[in-house]
Amino acid sequence: MIYSSENLFRKFLDKGKDDSKTYEELKQLYSILESIIESSYDAICVNDSNAMGVIANEAYTRMTGVRREELIGKSLPQLIDEGTISDSVTLKVLKEKRVKTIIQNIRGKELLVTGSPVYDENGKITHVVSNLRDISDLNKLKSELYESRVLTKKYLNEIKELKQKEGARLMMDGIIAQSKEIIKVLHLTKKVANVDSAVLLNGESGVGKEVFANMIHINSKRVNKPYVKVNCGAIPEQLLESELFGYEKGAFTGADIKGKPGYFEQAHGGTIFLDEIGEMPLELQVKLLRVLQEYEIMRVGGTKTVKVDVRIISATNRNLQELVEKGQFRKDLFYRLNIVPIEIPALRSRRADIPPLTYYFLNNMNEKYKMNIRIQPEVIRCFEEYHWPGNIREMENLIERLVVTSDGEEITVNHLPEDFFSKDSPTKEWSLKELVEELERKVIKETMKEYRTTRKAANKLGISQPALVKKMQKLKINEY
């Protein structure tokens, strides 16, 4: 530790120089005080009543970058004129004669500085002790929080705008589109809604085939007529025929004595949606083909046909053409159902929709559970990299789980389930460290592309220029 000719303590030591015992005690006390100040993690500096620097510990240099030789023996007005410091809490303490706290900028670093006066026995200020704390990390967190809130507001506003745009959102909650892939599908869906042609919705599980079927019915001329949904894979094979086509009284043991109309009769004048059509048994496919050809059905146990007027929409996550080649699906039925095929893209093929969908579901869950959970932008980036084998249904379920299990007010990467980063994931075989590095690489490239220089990019990212250059070398970022 450096002192100004050790004048600070010699004043006290001089009082006991004629008494060797007292002198040694004071000297020992001075040594202890020196160790205490030097071991402090916080930066400490001391100025005398003339605002001259007399003490600075090692933490001061570490925190500010100012060597103690630059501070000791110099007056604070001189340091301000030289640009070493932006302001002085000591001068304020000497003027107002009380403890003061200010934000001080020392060589580009923001510090929280508290100055405390030291009085003599006559009540005069002899020294001012200043404690400095680095608030750069706090400011960085505040900046990240602000950016997160701005980003959240941006996406929520985009969702609001999407609700008002033709082709971006077509009258249905749950279909949010920003990508050209899904907007193209939405245009086709709306177009075929106005005619009665059979529509076959193809797509992986969870892409929202039922939502598109709903849209077709709502935008059709049959909107005020019955809309019947049937999951062909959820009804036992032995019951499916009677459920679809109905049955007459006494048709089988346990049948209603009055008989029962089937789903096709119930949908008369409206629309029937046959989900998981690829699960329909071959023997029933023949009867369904008759409905498509003749628009009539015959109840189980019946002897006469019943005319029906229905619009048929079917959906499957299986490749029906392959099933036809394997003899598991009738070719003639396939052609009847496939008049207007609509391929609904998987979520990983429409990544531009991931951010607005995320905030849409987050907003819904917050309203549902009366919460106000936010989500960090880093989580959105993870979502954009994920494969989403369960598509939109998986995303909605995951966001609900994150909202109800969150132990704070913000969802972070650490809240994501372990299997989200599992090597069994269909994305890439990345560890969490590799995933974080890839996200860093992406963010740095985007920032460099926008700001062009490492100095400006480092300032935007809240790190020093050398740290950015070092990180770019580590991540092997040579072009952007």
Poorly predicted runs of 5 or more residues? 1-6, 165-174, 423-429
Give the DSSP E fraction (strand runs of 2 or more residues).
15-25%
- Number of H- or I-type helical stretches: 20
Task: State the secondary-structure class.
Answer: alpha/beta
Largest sheet: 5 strands, antiparallel
The first-to-last residue Cα distance is 47 Å
Looking at the structure, what is the overall shape? rod-shaped
Strand order of the largest sheet: 2-1-5-4-3
Taking all Cα atoms into account, the compactness measure Rg is 37 Å
CATH class categorisation of the largest domain: Alpha Beta
Mean pLDDT: 82
Number of strands: 14
The CATH architecture designation of the largest domain is 3-Layer(aba) Sandwich
Question: Which homologous superfamily in CATH is the superfamily of the largest domain?
Answer: P-loop containing nucleotide triphosphate hydrolases
Protein name: HTH-type transcriptional regulatory protein TyrR
Pfam family, one: PAS
Domain PAS: 29-76
GO molecular function: ATP binding; DNA binding
Describe what you observe in this structure:
This protein is of the alpha/beta class and 480 residues long. The chain folds into three domains: 7-134, PAS domain (Beta-Lactamase); 179-345, Rossmann fold; 350-474, Helicase, Ruva Protein, domain 3. It contains 20 helices and 14 strands. The chain has helices at 7-15, 20-39, 58-64, 68-71, 76-82, 89-96, 136-164, 180-193, 209-218, 237-245, 263-266, 282-294, 320-325, 331-337, 354-369, 377-385, 391-405, 432-451, 454-461, 465-474; strands at residues 43-48, 53-56, 100-106, 109-119, 125-134, 199-202, 227-231, 271-275, 296-298, 305-307, 311-316, 340-343, 374-375, 410-411. The strands form four sheets. A five-stranded antiparallel beta sheet has the order 2-1-5-4-3. The protein has a five-stranded parallel beta sheet with strand order 7-8-11-6-12. Helix 1 packs antiparallel against helix 2 (20-39), helix 7 crosses helix 15 (354-369) and helix 8 (180-193) packs across helix 9. The longest helix is centred in the first third of the chain and has 29 residues, at 136-164. The protein is rod-shaped and about 125 Å long. The chain starts with 6 loop residues before the first helix and ends in a 6-residue tail after the last helix. Mean pLDDT is 82; it is low at 1-6, 165-174 and 423-429.
